Amino acid sequence: MDTNSVNIRYMVENVDNAVQFYTQYLGFTLTTNAAPAFAAVIKGNLRLLLSSRTSSAGKAMPDGSLPVPGGWNRFQLIFDDLEAEVAKLKSQGLHFRNEIITGPGGSQILLIDPSGNLIELFQPI
């Protein structure tokens, strides 16, 4: 494994659906497939670990709480033409939490994966 890679784990409802989403729409490559429990996809230096409730990462915590997908944490993918990328993804039936907003550093929008996890699509100024 590349020691310069960034590893992020997302809890997902369905590993196969998650793999299809990240490879088909966002250009990730499948590197490990242990579905239905776990898979890993990679894009550049980002290794995304997709774990279901049947994986070791899905086990209950000592207090009984269970890891679940969703929330507000996210990783960011950078695009040169955010409007074109969003239009393409919307035409393919993907869903967003908001519309493109612009701030002091650039423009962003939140894409929702099949389990409710967020991916920030960003275009710097």
UniProtKB/TrEMBL annotation:
It holds the Pfam family Glyoxalase. Coiled coil: none annotated. Signal peptide: none annotated. PROSITE patterns: VOC. InterPro entries: Glyas_Bleomycin-R_OHBP_Dase, Glyas_Fos-R_dOase_dom, VOC_core. Residues 2-124 form the VOC domain. This is VOC family protein.
